[in-house]
């Protein structure tokens, strides 16, 4: 299966650091890219629209400086996540800045928009669209996405319910382009497993929340270190879209995680209400049992590399 040309020979590990709402910031993105994986952030994490220009300048400047000083180990490309749902009133503004900085990879979410894809293709960028089922995957490719992020059961934040084996299998029956797999991937062995089932890249989120660079509270990070899959609750109450959240944060908000009411799409927004939801209700995936401590992002990537190499050796020896 193909890895996009702009990623070839640029990755130390076949992985993308998922864009984490509120959590991802330029410091984390630069640390991920210089460690050899794609670093990503949602454009809406720059809370003021004008702040996004500064963030993109900071990232591109830092990566250019790294590349000049590390000719044999250049940084991986970075990515920006755009919410293309009609309720995102900042889409046009944020897309224009992606064009200005020629953002290498754009990850689109909550809808597929041909005009957005065309604008990114015009300067040579690529578009990866996240999907939770095969129908959405087909629509995304039909509308011009270059590749897919298959968001399977167990992924942190907004997530689907399909087994990664079933989801990738159905997509690979008709699509031979780039696929990243999301869902409880927090070890090097899981990265290799993602490739074995047909994905090109792993898409890793929760593990990077428990890093020193991440914009998360100490309580949030420690909850991940102490948590396991049993601590994850799946609900659509908080944003109108189903997602996975930490039980402890739901209880801290005075709610019963075992008896949550249904939300609906009318509660979906990407401004103050959503910020409060993600700030107080902590997203996390089912793979958090692999998180044992809070580390610098580079150290986490190094651990994943070691585990990935060891898993490959075990498989080769089988």
3D structure, described in words:
The protein is α/β, with parallel strands linked by helices. It is 39% helix and 15% strand. It has 12 helices and 11 strands. It has helices at residues 26-35, 51-69, 91-101, 114-122, 134-142, 164-172, 188-196, 206-209, 218-226, 247-252, 272-280, 297-317; strands at 15-17, 39-42, 78-83, 105-109, 126-131, 147-151, 157-158, 179-182, 201-204, 232-235, 243-246. It has an 8-stranded parallel β-sheet with strand order 1-9-8-6-5-4-3-2. Strands 7-11-10 form a 3-stranded antiparallel β-sheet. Helix 3 (91-101) links the parallel strand 3 (78-83) and strand 4 (105-109). The chain is globular and about 50 Å long. Mean pLDDT is 93; it is low at 269-273.
Which properties best describe this structure?
318 residues; alpha/beta; three-stranded antiparallel β-sheet; 12 helices; 15% strand; globular
| Percentage of β-strand residues | 5-15%
Main sheet: strands, sense, barrel: 8 strands, parallel
C-alpha termini separation: 23 Å
Structural class: alpha/beta
Radius of gyration: 18 Å
Q: Give start-end ranges of low-pLDDT stretches.
A: 269-273
The gross shape turns out to be: globular
Kindly report the spatial arrangement of strands forming the biggest sheet.
1-9-8-6-5-4-3-2
Number of helices: 12
Q: Report helical residue fraction.
A: 25-40%
**Can you count the beta strands?**
11
Q: What's the helix-strand series?
A: EHEHEHEHEHEEHEHEHHEEHHH
- Mean pLDDT reading: 93
């Amino acid at each position: 299966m193909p890895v996009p040309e702009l990623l070839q020979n640029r990755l130390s590990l076949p992985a993308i650091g998922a864009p984490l709402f509120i959590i991802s910031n330029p410091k984390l993105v630069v640390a991920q890219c210089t460690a050899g994986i794609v670093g990503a952030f949602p454009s809406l994490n720059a809370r003021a629209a004008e702040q996004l220009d500064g963030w993109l300048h900071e990232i591109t400047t830092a990566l250019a400086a790294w590349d000049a000083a590390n000719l044999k180990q250049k940084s991986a490309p970075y990515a920006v996540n755009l919410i293309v749902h009609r309720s995102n009133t900042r889409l046009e503004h944020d897309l224009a800045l992606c064009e200005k900085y020629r953002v290498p990879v754009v990850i689109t979410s909550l809808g597929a928009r041909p005009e957005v894809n065309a604008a990114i293709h015009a300067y040579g960028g690529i578009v990866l669209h996240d999907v939770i089922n095969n129908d959405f995957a087909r629509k995304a490719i039909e509308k011009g996405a270059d590749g897919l992020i298959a968001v399977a059961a167990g992924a942190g934040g907004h997530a689907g319910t399909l087994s990664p084996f079933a989801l990738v299998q159905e997509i690979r029956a008709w699509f031979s382009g780039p696929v990243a797999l999301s869902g409880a991937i927090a070890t090097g062995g899981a990265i290799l497993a993602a490739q074995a089932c047909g994905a090109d890249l792993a898409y890793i989120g929760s593990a990077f929340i428990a890093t020193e660079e991440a914009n998360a509270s100490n309580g949030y990070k420690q909850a991940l270190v102490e948590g396991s899959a049993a601590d994850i609750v799946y609900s659509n109450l908080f944003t109108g879209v189903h997602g996975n959240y930490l039980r402890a944060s739901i209880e801290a908000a005075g709610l019963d995680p075992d008896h949550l009411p249904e939300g609906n799409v009318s509660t979906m927004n990407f401004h103050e209400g959503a910020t409060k939801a993600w700030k107080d209700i902590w997203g996390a995936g089912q793979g958090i049992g692999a998180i044992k401590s809070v580390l610098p992002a580079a150290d986490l990537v190094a651990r994943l590399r070691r585990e990935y190499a060891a898993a490959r050796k075990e498989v080769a020896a089988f």
